[in-house]
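Task: complex structure prediction.
Instruction: return structure tokens for all chains below.
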Amino acid sequence: MLEAEAPDALEKRVKERREGLPELPNADKGKVILRFAPNPNGPLTLGHSRGVIINSHYAEKYDGKMILRYDDTDTKIKRPELKAYDWIREDFTWLAGRKPDIILEASARMSEYLTHAKQFIEEDYMYVCTCTADEFKQLRNDQQECPCRANSTLKNSDLWDQMNDKEGGFNEGDAVVRVRTGMDHTNPALRDWPALRIQRAGHPKVGEKYRVWPLLDFQSAVEDHIQEVTHIIRGKDLMDSTRKQKLLYKMAGWNYPETLYWGRVKVHEFGGFSTSQMKIDIENGNFEGWDDPRLPTLRALRRRGYDAQAIRQFWIDLGLTQKDISVPMSTLNSLNAKAVDVEAPRLSFVRDPRTVILDITEIELTNVTLPVHPEHPAKGVREWPLGDNPLKVKITSEDFSSAEGRRLKDFATISINHQETEQGWKGEIIHIERVDDTPIIHWLPSNMAQPAVLVLEEDGELVSAEGLLEINDYPDGTVVQLERMGFAILEGTEENGARRLVRLHG
RNA sequence: GCUUGUGUGGUGUAGUUCGGCCCAUCAUGACGGGUUCUCGAUCCGUCGACCCGGGUUCAAAUCCCGGCACGAGCACCA
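Output:
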């Protein structure tokens, strides 16, 4: 009786909470090869970052290799941009925290693709089709074979040569190479899908050297095989791509990689991530460039001071589901705040400042002491000398307009008389000690203030808010926390000498 | 139209393969409170979900059947 139940008890699996991403199917440590394959028609966006992070994360997890492949075989619709090759490499390295193991450019691998194409035509896996796109569309819908399908192998080889011949009869749109998958597939996307076509526009990398270019499904299929990619993880919009490629792999006798998918992602604040659309918007002057802080490009996020590790964590938390999702930036911002907070020194920034004049002859204090970071006293303190009487205090216009008393943080409770003098508006110190819950405001003594601008988005507009920044000697690139305002990064100096900051988030 | 995928709190996510440990996890968010001389951080509390309808079963988020909703592909783009 006991023995009969024992096997049951052994098989009883305990449900454990999974940490991080699930295991990859059929993954042998040290043998996994993954790739991330963007089109270099612009820099990487937050959307791309999922591909970079998930793939490189698995590459590290299994001690495997990570390929960065530029899928730049379209010279017309999504024309590659030369600078984007460098941008993407930089974006990748920053985000993944390491360089790709292998970098490939499809345009530099053309001879491989054309050789395979020629061979596949000779083996009759593919044929040249001279129907127009519209004609074939009709045939595909009706599940009818096109006349070209009946051409002999020899004829196809001849037509293939004509496609490649720069002086030949075939022009752009005249002919295309199709994979002979069959017109009887229930899924219309799979019916004799196109593998290569003619493009006359020059390629920014290789110029006019080639006339026939592979389409994504063919280029990717051949390259993944050559590179011995073991796992493909990509958006589920490419599911039919997998099915098409599997048909080709079967003909060629190749083994298709394990494939996993994620769903479509939107971010509440940005919507989708269309590189092409951003390009248009930038050209139209709606944005100042690829690193405009309002854009969801990695360059913009990096400029604003986002932490790469926080972005990595963001995608790993979202996991590998095929659900279409829309996430708010607050989820990422929360992770980012945790990442940057401990290293962010506190500084005071007074936007749109007003000057309040205070008589300090009655008080004993000569300077004000504030922590660099309230949770980490070891980081030291900030000393603000009060200087000569009267003390000129800078506060933001918002705080100024109220008639009620205000407590200058870490200093004194004051009242503002709203009487203007030559030096500023008159105010009075009510007491130094904090005795009530008068609202606390941030401020600066004029001798600790330097001109500054804070670049931030307000109602869709990019605003350079003028103000005064606490004098400091932190280098550019330091993420700071502006008291009562949120995180920002020191970026540089304006022509007029003002310090420039870019807002990160609250 | 054909093909294909997905439905768990406001937003994400774990659990679904192999039904019971799930009156359902964690994060984020909102709300309330403690602490703090920042609108930050931190601590405590509260809110809130298995798309719908049948079926199988002692037992269903999980299995079966049928709906519904939303997304994607059917480009000589990637």
